[in-house]
Structures are given as C-alpha cells and as structure tokens.
Amino acid sequence: MFDNHRPNQSFPLLVKMLDAQQSLSIQVHPNDENARKFFAEPNGKTECWYILAAKPDSVAYYGHQAQSAAEMQKDIKNHQLGSLLTTIKVKPGDLIYVPAGTLHALGAGIVALEIEQSSDNTLRFYDFARIDPVTGKQRPIQIDKAIAVTNFPNHIPDEKLTQPVVDFDNPAITSILRSPYFQISRIKVVGKTQITHQHYSINVVTEGSETLVCDNQEYQIETGMTFIMPTPIKNYWFKGNLTIIQANE
C-alpha cells in the first residue's frame, strides 16, 4: 500500500490541520542524526505548512538570529527573546518549508495544513508563560535540549525547493515543494482531470466539492476531507471544481 514500507513500520507521513487561535509554542524538532542521538529513534522531523487561512498581518515564528548556541544562551539569560526570534508574514496559499533544527511556531489567526516526517519528537523552546489548565502550572519547556538540536547559524532553505513548477504533462498539477523527505503538489481541478502516479499519496481537499473516480467507482469528496491513494492504484480522475494538496515521499 505504501511502496516498500513494511507493515510494522510507522505510517510514512503525518498530516495535521492546525487552527492557531493563539500563538502556538515555539519549538524545534531534531534532524535524523539528532533523533538517533537524543531519542534513539530512526528519523527526525522535517515539516512544512500550507497556509489555508490567515488574518491580516498574521505572522509565523521562523528561525532565529543567533550565530551560536552560546549567543542564544546569552540572549535568553538577558531576556532578549524578542530580538532573537524572527517572524515572517503569511497569507493563504503560502507553502513554508521547515527543516528539522528550525525554531518555529504558527502565530495567532492562522489555519494551516502541516505535513511532516512521521515522528512526535518535539522540544518546546518557549510557551508565552501559559498555564496548563490541568496542572495549574506553566507547561514544561526544554531549552537546553532544544538548543542542542537547533541549527546554528539559522539555516534558510534553498528557494528552489518551494518554487512552483507546473507539470508539463498535466498543467492541473503544480509541484510546490521538493524536499528529500516528501513532495507536495497542488492540484486545481476545473472540469475533469486524470491523475497518473507511481507512488502512494495522501490527499487533502482544501477547496470545493465534487467527485473522485477510481476503479470504476465514484466517491463524493469535499473541503476538509483527507484520503489516501495506495501505490497499486495508478490512474484515477477528479471531476468538478476543487483544489487538493497532495503529499508523498
């Protein structure tokens, strides 16, 4: 079903819908090497956000300005987080690639589709002094471990990875991310579109509602639905007017 993945392996990718009504905690994930070193797990967690909705002037926390771990420790000690962290403005339709080792968080007012390596390794760097309603205390943070897996200096991904590339054979498909860990495409259907693929895919309908035709069966799909096309299925069709974000390895 998932190419060469064995039944006892983790699900290949994680896909989540995030609704940040307030700024999420600033966190970082280890890369593959640090996942093995600190967590004894096979892979780290590189991810991306596809922005579905955003209030005017919404921002995401993305990266930092420290040149070394020592400089970051000094800024934290001097309560200079405001000048340490960097932000970027976001709008619907943006694709933001977040390599492992990048400090990051969605700001308030953003709804995003998050696609990532299959891992739950998360180190919380800062949580805006929020109180856990269950414990009545501030939620724990892991600054030392977070700094240990953070990239220094901050790594900015090559813009070519997220440059939109229209499929020559099927202009309804636009590649919007090509990373070593997963590929993301946006499919805009107007009328009828045939999809041919060689690998499994995870699909999220982000706009519209119409019909998926597969193995001579019709399935109604609509905004917010997620479905998987397994590897053995090589051809299928979309009919109607809709937008789909598709992820695969």
Task: Sum this structure up briefly.
This protein has helices at residues 32-39, 69-77, 81-84, 143-149; strands at 13-20, 26-28, 47-54, 59-64, 85-89, 95-98, 104-106, 110-117, 123-126, 165-166, 173-178, 183-196, 201-214, 217-222, 226-229, 235-248. By secondary structure, it is mainly β.
Describe this structure in words.
- With 249 residues, the chain is mostly beta strands.
- It folds into two domains: 13-157, Jelly Rolls, CATH 2.60.120.10; 161-248, Sandwich (Jelly Rolls), CATH 2.60.120.
- It contains four helices and 16 strands.
- The protein has helices at residues 32-39, 69-77, 81-84, 143-149, and strands spanning 13-20, 26-28, 47-54, 59-64, 85-89, 95-98, 104-106, 110-117, 123-126, 165-166, 173-178, 183-196, 201-214, 217-222, 226-229, 235-248.
- The strands form four sheets. Strands 10, 11, 12, 13, 14, 15 and 16 form a seven-stranded antiparallel β-sheet that branches. The protein has a four-stranded antiparallel β-sheet with strand order 1-8-3-6, with no helix packed on it. Strands 5-4-7 form a three-stranded antiparallel β-sheet.
- A hairpin with a 6-residue loop joins strand 10 and strand 11.
- The longest helix has 9 residues, at 69-77.
- It is elongated.
- The two termini are 13 Å apart.
- InterPro entries: Carb_Metab_Reg_Kinase/Isom, MPI_cupin_dom, PMI_typeI_cat, RmlC-like_jellyroll, RmlC_Cupin_sf.
- Residues 7-40 form the Phosphomannose isomerase type I catalytic domain.
- Keywords: Isomerase, Metal-binding, Zinc.
